[in-house]
Design brief:
The chain is of the alpha/beta class and 144 residues long. It contains 2 helices and 5 strands, in the order H-E-E-E-E-H-E. Helix content is 15%, strand content 21%. Strands 3-2-1-4-5 form a 5-stranded parallel beta sheet, with helices on one face. The longest helix has 13 residues, at 8-20. The chain is globular. The two termini are 26 Å apart.
């Protein structure tokens, strides 16, 4: 996992393992580069959908080291709410992951509704009991 995660990504992985052990396809919505979904090594099809791709703090998008290898992740630059996704078989993935994204979107209800229709298993993480970061972290919603 990413060295600056403070255990967050390890906890997210541990929480989702029982629900994703048999997954063959996964989509991460609102991801950064390198995408978290790359850690699902047993999943054959891994897709990352975001309107733009940022890097983790301290990483250069163009200078990924071998520990951040994500050659098997397909990056799709698109707004998730307008992204169709039907090019992926029946349009339904085994698992959808959206970590720390919902608080940034304009319409979290519409986003969640689409997310729930995108995969058989949906894993969502939002800030819980965090201090309001005001405009510093670009949250559109607080205390989801």
């Amino acid at each position: 996992m990413h060295k600056d995660s403070g255990g967050y990504y390890d906890a997210a992985m541990a929480m989702m393992l029982p629900f994703t052990a048999n997954a063959t396809s996964a989509v991460e919505v609102g991801c950064v580069k390198p995408a978290f979904v790359r850690h699902l090594s047993w999943v054959g099809r891994k897709v990352c959908v975001a309107p733009y791709f940022a890097a983790y703090k301290g990483l250069d998008l163009d200078a990924q080291d071998s520990s951040d290898d994500d050659d098997d992740v397909e990056y799709v630059e698109a707004d998730f709410l307008t992204w169709r996704g039907q090019e992926y078989d029946d349009g339904i993935f085994d698992v959808a992951i959206s970590l720390q994204v919902l608080e940034h979107v304009v319409d979290p209800g519409a986003f969640m509704k689409k997310l729930l229709g995108t995969a058989r298993v949906v894993v969502v993480s939002v800030p819980y009991m965090w201090a309001d970061c005001k405009t510093k972290c670009n949250h559109r919603h607080h205390m989801i």
